[in-house]
Write a structure and sequence with these properties.
It is built from nine helices and 15 strands. By secondary structure, the protein is of the alpha+beta class. The protein has two domains: 155 residues, no CATH class; 205 residues, no CATH class.
Length: 385
C-alpha cells in the first residue's frame, strides 16, 4: 500500500469513527433532546407506583384525587411527607426530576413545578379509590398520532400495556406534566425572548393614536368566539392546550412582529367558546394587519429551542423582502417553516392559520375561517382605555 493510500484509508476511518468517538453527540441531536421529558415521566411513574404500598401515600392520594382529577406533584409529595412524618428519598428524586425538566425547557425561573399526578376514571365512575391496586401510566415516545399502546407500572414494578386509543374501564393514575402550567411558563419565556430579540413591542408601550379613530386609548382586536374542529388528543393526554402566534410587520423597522397568545379556556374540540379575549394590539403592527397561526401544545416541547429557531429562521426567510403589505402573510409561512418539529419527542401540533386579518376589514365584528378549515373565530374592535 502506498503512503498516499495509507493516508487516505486513515482519513476515511477517522471520518467514519467521528460519531463514535464523540459519543453520537451532535448539536441538537434528536434522540439526545427527545428523551428528557419521556424519561422524566417514566421515572416518576415508576417511583409513584413503588410508593403505592405505603399506607400514608395511599391516603394522601385519596385525599387529593377523590374530588378532582389532578394534583401538582409538589403538593402531593408535601402532603405525603407531612403525613408520614419523615423525608422520602423517592419523593426527593421525583422533585429533582421535575427541576431537571424545567431546566431543560429553560423555565426554571418561571415555574415552581411542572409534574403532576392525574386520575383518569371511566365515564360515570365515582367509586372509592384503591391506590394499592392502581396502575401508574406515562406517555410513550414519539408523535401522539402514532401511539398504539400505553405502558403503566403496578406497585410491584411490573409493566402493563394499555390501548392508546381506548380508555381503560377502570381508574388509572398518570404521571405527567401539567400542560397548562407548562404552556403558561413556555409562552412567558417565548415572549421574553421575542422582546429581547426586538421582535415584540411591550404591551405597556404608549400607542400612537391615529387620526379618524374614535378610540382615545389603544385600539385592539377582541376575540369574542372561537371553535376548534379537531384536536386529535389520545385519552391519556386529557384536555387540549391551544396557543397562537400573532404575527405581522413591525410598524417602525423592517422586522417581523410576533407575539404568542395563550388560550387557556380552549380545552376541547367541537365546543364553542366566547372568551372576549384581547388578542391583537393594532399599534404593534404595520398596516394594522396580522396573521394568527394556531398550535396545540405537547409537553415534549422546548420553547427555548423553538423560539431560537423561529427568531433566526424567520429573519433568514424574510431577509430578502422589503417590509410591504404583500409579505405580511409570508411572516406566518416563515414561522411554519422555522418551527423545528424534528427536534422534539411530541411536537406542538400545527392546527391552522388565518391569514391577513385587517383592522379596517373587521368593521363592528367579523368571523374568520382558518385556511385548513379547523379554526373559526370572530373578532371585533375594542378600545382599551
Amino acid at each position: 500500500m502506498t503512503a498516499m493510500k495509507k493516508i487516505f484509508v486513515c482519513l476515511a476511518i477517522s471520518i467514519l469513527m467521528m460519531p463514535v468517538l464523540a459519543g453520537e453527540r451532535t448539536p441538537h441531536a434528536p434522540e439526545e433532546k427527545r428523551d428528557v421529558v419521556y424519561e422524566a415521566k417514566r421515572n416518576v411513574a415508576q417511583n409513584i407506583a413503588s410508593l403505592l404500598d405505603d399506607v400514608a401515600f395511599q391516603q394522601t392520594i385519596i385525599d387529593n384525587l377523590s374530588d378532582k382529577n389532578a394534583v401538582a406533584m409538589g403538593e402531593l409529595l408535601a402532603g405525603f411527607q407531612s403525613r408520614a412524618g419523615v423525608a422520602s428519598a423517592k419523593a426527593r428524586r421525583i422533585l429533582d426530576t421535575d427541576l431537571e425538566v424545567r431546566r431543560w425547557k429553560g423555565t426554571e425561573h418561571l415555574s415552581n413545578g411542572l409534574m403532576e399526578l392525574r386520575l383518569v376514571r371511566p365515564e360515570g365512575d365515582a367509586g372509592e379509590l384503591d391506590p394499592a391496586s392502581m396502575l401508574v401510566a406515562f406517555e410513550p415516545r414519539g408523535e401522539d398520532k402514532n401511539w398504539k399502546s400505553i405502558e403503566a407500572f403496578d406497585v410491584e414494578g411490573n409493566l402493563h400495556t394499555l390501548d392508546a386509543r381506548v380508555q381503560p374501564n377502570f381508574p388509572i393514575l398518570v404521571a405527567d406534566l401539567d400542560a397548562r402550567e407548562d404552556l403558561r411558563a413556555g409562552i412567558a419565556l417565548a415572549n421574553e425572548m421575542l422582546v429581547a430579540a426586538g421582535m415584540q413591542k411591550p404591551v405597556e408601550q404608549d400607542a400612537d393614536q391615529r387620526t379618524g379613530k374614535a378610540c382615545s386609548g389603544i385600539n385592539t382586536g377582541q376575540m369574542t368566539y372561537i371553535r376548534l374542529k379537531d384536536d386529535h388528543e389520545p385519552w391519556i393526554k386529557g384536555s387540549a392546550e391551544i396557543y397562537a402566534f400573532v404575527s405581522g410587520i413591525d410598524p417602525t423597522i423592517a422586522d417581523p412582529e410576533i407575539r404568542l397568545v395563550d388560550m387557556p379556556y380552549l380545552d376541547h374540540d367541537g365546543t364553542s367558546y366566547y372568551p372576549n379575549q384581547l388578542v391583537v394590539y393594532w399599534y404593534q403592527y404595520r398596516y394594522n394587519t396580522v396573521n394568527m397561526t394556531f398550535y396545540e401544545h405537547d409537553d415534549g416541547t422546548n420553547y427555548q429551542g423553538i423560539l431560537s429557531a423561529v427568531i433566526s429562521g424567520v429573519r433568514v426567510i424574510l431577509g430578502a423582502f422589503a417590509p410591504q403589505y404583500a409579505i405580511i402573510a409570508e411572516v406566518a409561512n416563515a414561522i411554519l417553516q422555522a418551527m423545528p418539529g424534528s427536534w422534539f419527542t411530541d411536537d406542538d401540533d400545527y392546527v391552522d392559520t388565518i391569514y391577513t386579518i385587517d383592522e379596517d376589514a373587521i368593521g363592528s365584528g367579523r368571523t374568520y375561517n382558518g385556511a385548513g378549515a379547523n379554526v373559526t373565530l370572530t373578532l371585533k374592535p375594542y378600545c382599551l382605555n
